[in-house]
Write a structure and sequence with these properties.
62% helix; elongated; 78 residues; binds zinc ion
């Protein structure tokens, strides 16, 4: 019986989408951000998710900018 222990390190848990979002928003503490960076360097699945979230984020930002240019910002109260 051969031992098959070739697996990704068990302590490498995938960060959740919430954590990846927080990372992109710069809301993670330095250690958390570093963990995500190191993880995505090795994990293509998570790097892909980060890439998609980043692209989505850029699109949302540019759409919002377009919207604000097209529609004057709603003024609050008086
Ligand atoms: Zn991962």
């Amino acid at each position: 019986m051969t031992k098959r222990t070739h697996r990704p390190a068990p302590n490498v848990a995938h960060p959740g989408e919430g954590e990846l979002r927080a990372y992109l928003d710069g809301e993670l503490p330095p250690f958390g951000a570093m963990r995500v960076v190191l993880h995505t360097r090795r994990c293509h699945a998570c790097a892909h998710v980060v890439g998609e979230l980043r692209a989505l984020d850029a699109r949302t930002t540019s759409l919002l900018a377009d919207l604000q240019r097209a529609v004057p910002i709603v003024r609050r109260g008086s």
